[in-house]
Amino acid sequence: MKKKAFVLVLLAVVLAAGLGGYAQQRNAACTAAAIAYLEEQKPALNGAQTIPPDVDPETGRVIRVHAYGPGIGNMVIPYLMNAAEVHRVKAVPELAYPHVFIGDRMSGNNEKLYYSEGRRIFEFTLNKTDSLVFLLHLTEYRAVYPKVREYYTEGVIRQLEKEIEFGDRDILTFRNDSFYSIDIRTRETAEMLFRCIRNCDGILDLTTALLAPEPLPIQINGKGVGAFEHIYAHYQETGQFIGIYFTPEDSEQLRSYVMSLQSFERVDLD
Fold it and tell me: Given CA atoms 66, 120, 76, 235 in this order, what sign does their dihedral have?
């Protein structure tokens, strides 16, 4: 009896392994087909007419994007290769905004992408990090989705918490008796900056952007990281260089707070 049970268990293990191997091969074939489609789309999308995204007039958030330009393939292909799950489905379900369309055979949103090939539909579930990076790309220059704001702002704040050498006083630098910069060292000033970051009304991926030189009076450990209107950060979790842009109200409050500081270490530049 025990021998029979052992044989049944062994058969079950072998069958499961076989099915698992078949599923892996099938998923690899699905991924290869979708990637081939995106590669084919690059010439077709090169120079394609830009279609402005559809925006919710009440919230200002993007609800629909028609992807264009060969760069979209370069962006999405790694997402498919790193997908958390790949399945064949019967139909594309109702999805949360923002919706994205790539050519006529791929659609979805930042969480799931669907590739259609004849009557077959393949579902790719993006991993968490790729999903949020893609959402930022789809909604740039528009009202920030809450999940994007939380992911990037809280991550940047955690980084700054580790970088700031906290002390008793901030360091203010002056040139010709005029304010030049502040090196944040106190918990109170850091919290003012963190509030501006959390309440931001814009986040941009500037990884490939060519930025002109600009004054950066907000400093961390002597390094300029931003101004009263925004802050820049190398986001370690994704490797992106991002800009976080403050609301006008928070920007003005931060400026007023720094200018009203009574206790600080003063440095005068020649």
Answer: positive
